[in-house]
């Protein structure tokens, strides 16, 4: 299975980056790949064996789906790995250097959409995350 890696550098302390990445109230604000989509609901049990579910929906109401998974490994403020409901694996590395955090996400590609489309969608979501963290106090 092909793996795709995306990354971003965020100008914020690791505590804030971790909080915004893992708490549902923030997830709902950044978890969309384009302005015509949103995340109206999110739950997150950030424990090994815990589950998360983010409802991703078109703002016009035409389509929605739940992005769900189970946590395999959690190293607070450093590393998360989880298995998506369809069996694919995802790893996220948080590398903090004073008030700059590099976030690297690697995920197994699915077979329905082209690799570049998958990379672009996941990168757009990560870019939204960066924007939210850096723009809020």
From TrEMBL:
It comes from the Bacteria. InterPro entries: ASHA1/2-like_C, START-like_dom_sf. Residues 11-134 form the Activator of Hsp90 ATPase homologue 1/2-like C-terminal domain. SUPFAM superfamilies: Bet v1-like. Pfam families: AHSA1 (PF08327). Belongs to the AHA1 family. This is Uncharacterized conserved protein YndB, AHSA1/START domain.
